Protein: Transcriptional regulator MraZ
Organism: Arthrobacter sulfonylureivorans
Amino acid sequence: MFLGTHSPRLDEKGRLILPAKFRDELADGLVLTRGQERCIYVFSQKEFERVHEEMRKAPISSRQARDYIRVFLSGASDEVPDKQGRVTIPAALRSYAGLGRELAVIGAGTRAEIWDAQAWDNYLLEQETAFSETDEDVLPGVF
């Protein structure tokens, strides 16, 4: 499970060092792809395969499903971290997420997310009120 917030830097070759806590789960391979809110989703290879299988269940007649799957899969890149735990983020994904040098890598349960650090700070500020006002209807059984 991916948890926490980490603050790595992007190097001049477009690589980041994965947080130590995430490396074991991602050591055999990972998939980077476009995430919602202009971040990059990071899935273990196994979790990405599970998500893809769920997507395959969507009716091909659903335009919204087709659109989502096209955007999601066309941006996907499978990567294997090097021995230092570094992974290269393809230029197209760096551009999509507006990544600068300072990053926020967050745990989101079954996936991690890579954000530009300032974009993450802005997102948190925007979501603070909604977070504190979330009720049981949104997440049944949690509160």
